[in-house]
């Protein structure tokens, strides 16, 4: 996993490193960091079902003592400053708006000299995308400028486009299969189901054709 390998390069103290996983979902990243690196991880998500899966996964990998999963809205959670060593925001798009605003929120959650991992992307050719949910994307140069607007150090950038394409293909396959099942059960909803599938296909097309996936590792500027 790219996030695990990127984090491993920091050589952080396994016994004392505290990690915040914003939008942790079913806990895949949180559990990996705890089981492979011994980090203490706090995962935040608003979906109870996802959090229950995350707790099960932590117990399965015998890191339940290292993982805490909390049901909260991350937009509310970041209102209070904290001092984690590392904060992760993966696959949540522009939930905080622009990359500049994303970094502004994330850096309130870490200590001076702490680290941020952001899994997002940038535009391949266009200057902007006028589609709901994609307005925050910018060119590569503009993205780097926004990421480093507060003087933080960009340590590493990894292109994740290939991984994103595979994830999208699998996602669409599952959506179509589930759609077929639902249409058999609820034929009266067939038109709505097809419309939903079409929207998902269009989103995946935009991601494939217009965006480059990127994983960024930054270090917060150290206070002198």
Description of the structure:
With 224 residues, this protein is of the alpha/beta class. It contains 8 helices and 7 strands, in the order H-E-H-E-H-E-H-E-H-E-H-E-H-H-E. It has a 7-stranded mixed beta sheet with strand order 3-2-1-4-5-7-6. Helix 7 packs antiparallel against helix 8 (190-210). The radius of gyration is 19 Å and the shape is globular. The relative contact order is 0.14. The model has no long low-confidence stretch (mean pLDDT 91).
In DSSP terms, counting alpha (H) and pi (I) runs of 4 or more, how many helices?
A: 8
Order of SSEs, N→C? HEHEHEHEHEHEHHE
What is the CA–CA distance across the termini? 34 Å
- Beta fraction of the residues? 15-25%
Features:
224 residues; alpha/beta; Rossmann fold; 2 domains; seven-stranded mixed sheet; globular
Secondary structure elements and their pairing?
Blueprint: H1 2-8, E1 18-22, H2 28-37, E2 40-45, H3 48-60, E3 67-71, H4 74-77, E4 84-90, H5 99-106, E5 110-123, H6 140-147, E6 153-159, H7 161-185, H8 190-210, E7 211-219
Parallel strand pairs: 1-2, 1-4, 2-3, 4-5
Antiparallel strand pairs: 5-7, 6-7
Helix pairs in contact: 1-2, 5-6, 7-8
Short characterization:
With 224 residues, this protein is an alpha/beta fold. The protein has 8 helices and 7 strands, in the order αβαβαβαβαβαβααβ.
